Amino acid sequence: MPDYLIPYEPPLDVLLELAELSEPALEFAQAAALVGEAFTLQEVARVQSVTALSMLSALEETIAAGVIGFRGKGLAFRSPGLRRKLNTRISAPVRQALLRGAPPHRPAEPAAVAPCTEARPKPPAATERSLPMGRMAEQAPESLMSALLLCRENPGRPLDPHTEVALSRALTQAPAPVGRAAGGDTDAAQILALFGPGETEQRDRARAIVATRGRSAVSVVAAMVLANLDWAAGRIDQALEWGHEALRMDQDALPVAWRPYPSHTLAVMLIHLGRFTEGEVHLARTRELAERLDHPWALAESSIARGQLLMGTGRTEKAEAEIRAGVARAQRVDAHLAAAHGLSLLSLMTLAQGHWSEAADQIWRARSEIVAQPGALRPARHDWADFRVTTAGMDAAGAVGLLVKRFPDLLTKASVFLLDAGGAAHLVRLCRAAGEKTLAAAVTRRAARLADQNAGHQGLAAAAGHAWGLLHQDADALEYAALQHSVPWAAAAASEDLGTMLLERRDGLAARRHLGTALEGYRAIGALASVTRVESLLRKAGGDGPRGAGKAVPAPVPASATATGPGRRPGRPSGSRPRSELTEIEYGIARLVAEGLTNQQVANRVSRSPHTVNYHLRQIYRKLDVDSRVKLARVLH
Question: pLDDT tens for residues 393-402?
Answer without folding.
Answer: 888 998 998 8
